[in-house]
Predict the structure of ABC transporter domain-containing protein.
Amino acid sequence: MPASPKDGGIPAESPRNVFSSPCRAAAPTSGDMNLPTSAMASKASGASKGSDLHASPSIMHAALRSGAKSSSLPAVPPVPPVPPMAVSSTITTASTISDCTIGALYGYVVGSVCQDIEQVTGEPGDVQLDGKLAYGNAALTFKDVSFSLPTSHGDSNTILAPCSGHFEPGTLVALMGPSGSGKTTLLDILAAKKTSPYSGTVHMNGRPRDCLFPRLTSYVPQDDIMFPTVTVKEQVMFHTALKTEVPYAVSRTMMANATELRLRAVGLEEVQDAYIGSDVVRGISGGQRRRVSLACGLATGAQIFFCDEPTSGLSATDAEQCVRYMRLLCKKYHVTIIAAIHQPRQEVAVLFDHLLLLTANPGEVIYNGPMVQATQYWCDAGFPVPDLVSPTDYFLDLITPGTVDSQADHFLSFYRDTAKPVIVRLVDAELHRERRTAMELLEDRRRILCRFGEMPPVRRSIYAVRFRKQLQKVFCRQLRLLIRDQQGILTNVVVAVAQGLLVGAAYIGIGNHAGYNQAGFFFMLVMTCALSGIKVMPKAISERSVMKLEVSEVLYNDWAYIISFTTLNGIVSLLCNALFVLIVFLMSQLRWEIFGTVLLWNSAIFIAMDSVYMFVAAAAKDSSAAQILLVPFLMLAMIFNGFTVSRASVPDFMVWALEMSPVSHTLEEMVYSIQKQTESIELMIIVDQFGYQSSLGAAVGVLGAWFVLFRIGQIVCLKAMHNIKR
């Protein structure tokens, strides 16, 4: 059976037969296993359209069998890069270049994915390359990539030893190895997600990764961190909308219909309108959340996808379904998917094109080549896979250090002597072989999309959409979350009413009492408003982790979240604060002519102190740390409050603290203004007794300074602290 010209040149041999019959005579030798799948197509009668390498593996077979060194191996001849896919001139209606929305036929295109997934078997030619829709044209090459961690003794602990490799477009790659082998570390380095220093070189299409690399790639993390009250469908649509620009003619209904079809492909159609859920919000299962993360990553229309343990927590059947969907995207759209996967069962393993197998302590390459040739490689190494034994289980049993059957040292030596020279020459040939640039890949995609509607020009930015759209999408989602959090809204209202009734009951009819008692009432009112914003801190801290993860995936700028969260929560909090003031004022029986003054100054102190709480929530690691960090700010504001400690009683060396306290200035200006409005003799005595002075400019300046400085601190902390570290 010849290799299919549509699937990137998979070797003409059934992977299921290879896995069940090790050491077949027709199987290739160890020299082949290090070549990318597309480079093996020359064995078949049909040449692959998507292949960029056409080296004959039989020459390498002969060299390796005869014990030839790498210097005697023939160089891999470069060929011209694959040209960008063109749209057929016969297409006059809306179509698509990827699993991404465009025009009225988007539903048909994504629907074809659901139909084609039934044809995915892992056999050569099971999925045909779609010449009209395929858009992938990015190859990934890495050389001597390694990672070490410093120890307490001053030396370093090697997590990942230097490794090299090359993946052609249209390849589904499995990174496998025992725990501690560094497969997730390697995945993070290749995806440019590693925040710690590492060594080595990673190129895409023969060039170093630039600022556009995040636009062309998608990363599916292992942790499923999402907002609990977002539905499955909304979560996928949110990622799609922020990762892809689409023609203006594409409606929200079109995107929604297409998302439903995507969810059907990963088995989430039945729960598309269910909440993600959490410990306190009932939602979908953990395995379904894992598939939602996978669907979000795969719906972005990227050139290269990086998936960290995409099948963790899934049943065997669900895992196979997800990997079949990944293989379909690879072959149909010519994209590359690299997945770190622990130990897949045989039915899942055969769906992968390429296997990069690592041993542990440190992580070193044991095998780097086509999955279909792995059993033959083990046979050549002297350890054929026994009958009725899962090949992947057998591989890991032999390469895991410290086990009874471990042969890790033998396989490391065998790899260095036979396969590594081939990889070195292949990587040297591909590392600097320039193909399409990142900007050209984006321009190619836009050029096709422009046939179906007006689109903005491609910008050299890490974000796929403009800030206005980012803000719109994030704001709408935050508003939706706020409306759905009925318990939270009800709690805020109930707390405001309860506070109002409690304080009002303590000072009921205070308007008919002496001025000194009224001053105590104003003091309690200001203090309660100043402290009421604390209840927002736990919510801000809990949402921060989701925001940080999404910002690390360059879905949106963190400014979009800061503006949305601050605006919506500020409005709700101010309304609840106004409700509290209204209830207390009604029960106090004070004159209505001073209500505006009371509401104005209590709202001002609330806004100023709310900025402090948001700063602490942004800076603190968790709620416990936030309480500790908040103490000094509260002491300054609450102790030097203008009533228990006033200008008349404060020591001279602590006058500065009174001048810096927003509570002191608020109380002083409010009482002074009320006295002027009512011309109360009793309040005039209080003003003289406490040394109150009219200093409106100083009061506005202090309140404004607290608001501005702590808001700036909040923004700096949100941007610079608690980032996702890998």
About this structure: Strands lie at 140-150, 156-167, 172-176, 199-204, 207-208, 217-220, 304-308, 336-340, 354-359, 364-370. Residues 233 and 272 are 5 Å apart (CA to CA).
